[in-house]
Every structure is written in C-alpha cells, then in structure tokens.
C-alpha cells in the first residue's frame, strides 16, 4: 500500500493531518505534500506505516471478481470487504 493510501486510511480513521504529523515526527505541511504525491524520507514512510499498522488502518483485503467461464477475462470489479 502506498504512503498516500496509508495517510488516507488514517484520515478516514479520524486523524487530522497535524495529528498524523505529531505521531510521525514531521510537520503538517510534510503530510499535506505526501497526500498530494510528494516523496517522503524513508524514515517518515516507515513511521507512517507503523502508525497505520498500530491503528489497524490499511489492512483491508481486496477481492477481484472474474468471469469463471473465461480465465482470460480482465478484472471486472474490485470489491472492498
């Protein structure tokens, strides 16, 4: 899962950008830039991963549905469980 998706999961879980920044040890603008797709330091990314794991965020499993009669069928839908 990307850092951006982990951040979105944390926000969906109720954290605000400045709260994530405090937990991770960076500034709120750093979190904002990461949400917009900017790169973050390795240590920052690991801290975000650890925070998300501790809160149980980003652990969704995905199911890909395909036509059982056609093994070459493209993915028809991604469903969140």
Low-confidence stretches: 61-67
Summarize the main sheet.
Answer: 2 strands, antiparallel
Overall morphology: globular
CATH superfamily: lambda repressor-like DNA-binding domains
Commentary on this structure:
- The structure is a single chain.
- The chain is mainly alpha-helical and 81 residues long.
- The chain has a single domain (1-81), classed as 434 Repressor (Amino-terminal Domain).
- It has helices at 3-12, 17-24, 28-35, 42-55; strands at residues 62-65, 77-80.
- Strands 1-2 form a two-stranded antiparallel ribbon.
- The protein is globular and about 25 Å long.
Features:
81 residues, mainly alpha, 434 Repressor (Amino-terminal Domain), 4 helices
């Amino acid at each position: 899962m990307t850092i951006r998706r982990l951040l979105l999961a944390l926000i969906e879980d109720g954290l605000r950008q400045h709260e994530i920044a405090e937990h991770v040890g960076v500034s709120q603008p750093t979190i904002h830039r990461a949400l917009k797709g900017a790169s973050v330091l390795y240590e920052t990314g690991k801290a975000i991963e650890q925070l998300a794991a501790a809160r149980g965020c980003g652990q969704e499993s995905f199911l890909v549905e395909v036509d059982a009669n056609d093994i070459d069928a493209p993915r028809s839908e991604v469903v969140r469980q």
